[in-house]
């Protein structure tokens, strides 16, 4: 079992995060509970930023808020001096409620609505990342209507396979995102946006996918985009001021994952960018990245209370917890793997392999297929590690389960940052049906 960040085993033999015993955390806030190790998030944010400083490259590091968007998390990212990537008006609304400066926000998405675009422009969002031809037209019309010019990037699809889960790869040709580089769509798009008075065309964006640990993928994508940068320089005399290389930097979920550090990811990518700009004899564009998972994924731990067990003789033992696919969809959606431990029995030696099941009515509601644990009993506390990214943000009310609470822990202090949902919250949008009999 690998402990991330400030997590450690305390003298009571319990899991401690951010200087607080997990037993005390759950006694106060209940289970399931998301716990974020804030020190680890700060460390990651500063590693990404200092890697660019070290390379002496002008850069913007934006937090991909889809990984976990809440007022407190966005305020933390602002405190760390990051920019923000959003993909919907809901994420924008959250950022604005957090007091995040609109000009530091970059708006992505493959189907932004007219209302979402208007809202973003009215609030002065810093950059719109255009994804498709429909959006060029829509944004052009809205800008003309508002009498403004907006900064844009064009999202392109570099045709690079990220070698990650099929549902987490976005940079390949058969993708719903972006203008294809190979089939000429990107050429057409660049002509349209550079001719329009509505846009200040700052440069290009791509995102290869998520949980990528193979650095060659990132490096190859730089090679690919620079083939086109050369072409656009030669044909249209266009040289980008900004190159947004997306997020996707992989993290360590289990001992099968061998991620690089933020410093190394950045160093290797920048090495290639520098080589390419010197070949083309152009100034290095400002480099933007937008990590989500690598900023918050390893910092999150979910604490559950163990409940029932079902032994299927000679096959497996199912150990059920008081959450599941309602608070962590990733294992069901992507067959994602996590490690876990009994937070109240950290010094006991695991003596069996069990399958951790959720409490939702789906056989696919399995959090971990095989995890070694020491004699798990009802009432024990199960800690599932690395749930900080795409956990709460994909949480749902399947089976009308209330979503968990979220706490931040740092230097021995805990702060509730998202309240636990109640049954009243679950009912709050429901309206009674006027039955025929009552009319
Ligand atoms: C455009 C874009 N940027 C950034 C990210 C963040 O990816 P990650 O959390 O893997 O860093 C995503 C994730 O889906 C994305 O689609």
Describe the 3D structure.
With 439 residues, this protein is α/β, with parallel strands linked by helices. The protein has 2 domains: 8-30 and 299-427, Beta Barrel (Lyase, Ornithine Decarboxylase, Chain A, domain 1); 38-293, TIM Barrel, CATH 3.20.20.10. The chain is 30% helix and 24% strand. The chain has 12 helices and 21 strands. Strands 4, 14, 15, 16, 17, 18, 19, 20 and 21 form a 9-stranded mixed sheet that branches. The chain has an 8-stranded parallel barrel with strand order 5-6-7-8-9-11-12-13, surrounded by 5 helices. Strands 1-2-3 form a 3-stranded antiparallel sheet. Strand 14 and strand 15 form a beta hairpin. Helix 5 (114-122) packs across helix 6 (133-146) and helix 8 runs parallel beside helix 9 (262-280). The longest helix has 22 residues, at 215-236. The chain starts with 7 loop residues before the first strand and ends in a 12-residue tail after the last helix. The protein binds pyridoxal-5'-phosphate. The site of pyridoxal-5'-phosphate has 18 residues, from helix 10.
What attributes characterize this protein structure?
2 domains, eight-stranded parallel β-barrel, 439 residues, alpha/beta, binds pyridoxal-5'-phosphate, Lyase, Ornithine Decarboxylase, Chain A, domain 1, TIM Barrel
- What best-fitting shape do the alpha-carbon axes yield? globular
- Give the class-level CATH name of the largest domain: Alpha Beta
Number of distinct beta strands: 21
Regarding quaternary structure, what we see is: single chain
Query: How big is the Rg?
Result: 23 Å
CATH topology of the largest domain: TIM Barrel
Tell me the count of domains: 2
Cα distance spanning the termini: 62 Å
Query: What count of helical segments does DSSP give?
Result: 12
Structural class: alpha/beta
Cofactors, ions and other ligands in the entry: pyridoxal-5'-phosphate
Query: Approximately what portion of the residues adopt beta-strand conformation?
Result: 15-25%
CATH arch. level architecture of the largest domain:
Alpha-Beta Barrel
Largest sheet: 9 strands, mixed
């Amino acid at each position: 079992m690998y402990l991330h960040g400030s997590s450690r085993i305390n003298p009571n033999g319990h899991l401690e995060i951010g200087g607080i015993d997990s037993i005390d955390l759950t006694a106060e806030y209940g289970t399931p509970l998301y716990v974020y190790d804030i020190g680890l998030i700060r460390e990651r944010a500063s590693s990404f930023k200092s890697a660019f400083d070290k390379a002496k490259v002008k850069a913007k590091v934006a937090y991909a808020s889809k990984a976990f968007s809440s007022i407190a998390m966005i305020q933390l990212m602002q405190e760390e001096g990051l920019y923000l990537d959003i993909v919907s008006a809901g994420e924008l609304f959250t950022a604005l409620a957090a007091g995040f400066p609109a000009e530091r926000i970059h708006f992505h998405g493959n189907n932004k609505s007219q209302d979402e675009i208007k809202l973003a422009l009215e609030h002065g969002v810093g950059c719109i990342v255009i994804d498709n031809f429909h959006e060029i037209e829509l944004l052009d019309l809205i800008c003309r209507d508002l009498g403004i010019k907006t900064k844009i990037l064009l999202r392109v699809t570099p045709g690079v396979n990220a070698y990650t889960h099929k549902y987490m790869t976005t940079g390949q040709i058969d993708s719903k995102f972006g203008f294809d580089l190979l089939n000429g769509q990107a050429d057409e798009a660049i002509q349209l946006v550079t001719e329009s008075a509505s846009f200040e065309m700052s440069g290009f964006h791509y995102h290869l996918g998520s949980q990528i640990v193979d650095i060659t993928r990132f490096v190859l994508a730089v090679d690919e985009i620079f083939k086109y940068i050369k072409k656009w320089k030669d044909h249209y005399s266009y040289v980008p001021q900004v190159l947004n290389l997306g997020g996707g930097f992989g993290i360590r979920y289990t001992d099968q994952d061998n991620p690089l550090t933020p410093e190394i990811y950045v160093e290797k990518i920048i090495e290639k960018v520098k080589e390419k700009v010197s070949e083309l004899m152009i100034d290095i564009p400002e480099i933007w990245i937008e990590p989500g998972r690598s900023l918050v994924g390893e910092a999150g731990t979910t604490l559950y209370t163990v409940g029932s067990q079902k032994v299927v003789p000679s096959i497996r033992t199912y150990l059920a917890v008081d959450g599941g696919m309602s608070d962590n969809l990733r294992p069901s959606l992507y067959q994602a793997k996590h490690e876990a431990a009994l937070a109240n029995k950290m010094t006991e030696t695991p003596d069996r392999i069990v399958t951790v099941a959720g409490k939702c009515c789906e056989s696919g509601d399995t959090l971990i297929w095989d995890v070694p644990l020491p004699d798990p009993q009802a009432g024990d506390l199960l800690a599932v590690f690395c749930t900080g990214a795409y956990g709460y943000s994909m949480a749902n009310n399947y089976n009308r389960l209330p979503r968990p609470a979220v706490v931040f822990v740092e230097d021995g202090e805990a702060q509730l940052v998202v309240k636990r949902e109640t049954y009243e919250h679950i009912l709050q949008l429901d309206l009674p049906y006027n039955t025929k009999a009552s009319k």
